[in-house]
């Protein structure tokens, strides 16, 4: 569907994902099609406390080992740090220490652009009021595009490639609809480094 819409994307996978033989064909295909393949930590660690963000839950040694393990698994697909210098932290949750440690590893920390509900596409009905439907996500993207003077220019929209089986309303089934409507407005979909 991305190739059909001539869209490039950036995929940040954990080492667990890269190391899963069941995903090898998918990863190889994304790489062959020219999408960006990046790191999202090896084991999807929570780096800092949810309520006291400056409280670290990992040491620098743990952080570095986990990140390097992620890149070791990416190497199987021919992707090195030089090929993938941008790092998306797990849970998209970090603090200044994590940012500094990322820089010491020779990488640039990145995160999605706030303002839409797209990152909630992992939620499922049993989560109660935290659940966000695909229609709500879609409309939040269009609403931001309409009200922001810059629209979605340079916007980094985060979507999950897979979600909990309890979420039957998968947002990725609406992705083509989103791409088509935004393309009609003149948007192009490019790899991360083309935006930064």
Overall mean pLDDT stands at 96
Low-confidence stretches: none
CATH topology of the largest domain: TIM Barrel
Number of strands: 4
The fourth-level CATH homologous superfamily of the largest domain is Glycoside hydrolase/deacetylase
Helical/strand content category: mainly alpha
Order of helices and strands: EHHEHEHEHHH
Number of domains: 2
Strand content: 5-15%
Query: What is the C-alpha radius of gyration, as a whole number of Å?
Result: 17 Å
The level-1 CATH class of the largest domain: Alpha Beta
**Strand neighbour order, sheet with most strands:** 1-2
Taken from the alpha-carbon principal axes, the silhouette is: globular
How many DSSP helices? 7
Distance between the termini: 25 Å
Q: Give the fraction of residues assigned to helices.
A: 25-40%
Largest beta-sheet characterization: 2 strands, parallel
CATH architecture of the largest domain: Alpha-Beta Barrel
What does the model show?
With 196 residues, the protein is mainly alpha-helical. The chain has 2 domains: 1-111, TIM Barrel, CATH 3.20.20.370; 112-190, no CATH class. It has helices spanning 15-18, 24-32, 60-75, 96-104, 134-147, 175-184, 192-195, and strands at residues 10-13, 36-39, 86-87, 108-109. The strands form 2 sheets. The protein has a two-stranded parallel ribbon with strand order 1-2. Strand 3, helix 4 (96-104) and strand 4 form a beta-alpha-beta unit. The chain is globular. It starts with 9 loop residues before the first strand and ends with a helix. The mean pLDDT is 96.
């Amino acid at each position: 569907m991305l190739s059909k819409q001539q869209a490039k994307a950036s995929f940040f996978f954990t080492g667990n994902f890269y190391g899963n033989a069941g995903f090898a064909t998918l990863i190889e295909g994304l790489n062959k099609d020219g999408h960006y393949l990046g790191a999202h930590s090896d084991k999807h660690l929570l780096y800092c406390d949810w309520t006291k963000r400056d409280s670290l839950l990992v040491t620098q040694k743990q952080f570095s080992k986990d990140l390097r393990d992620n890149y070791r698994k990416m190497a199987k697909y021919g992707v090195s740090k030089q090929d993938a210098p941008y790092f998306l932290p797990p849970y998209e949750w970090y603090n200044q220490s994590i940012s500094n440690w990322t820089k010491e590893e020779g990488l640039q920390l990145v995160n999605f652009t706030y303002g839409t509900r797209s990152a909630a596409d992992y939620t499922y009905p049993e989560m109660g009021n935290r659940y966000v439907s695909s229609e709500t996500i879609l409309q939040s993207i269009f609403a931001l595009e309409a009200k922001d003077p810059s629209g979605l220019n340079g916007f980094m929209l985060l979507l999950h490639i897979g979600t909990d089986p309890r979420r039957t309303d998968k947002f990725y089934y609406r992705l083509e609809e989103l791409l088509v409507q935004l393309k009609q407005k003149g948007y192009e979909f490019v790899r991360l480094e083309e935006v930064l």
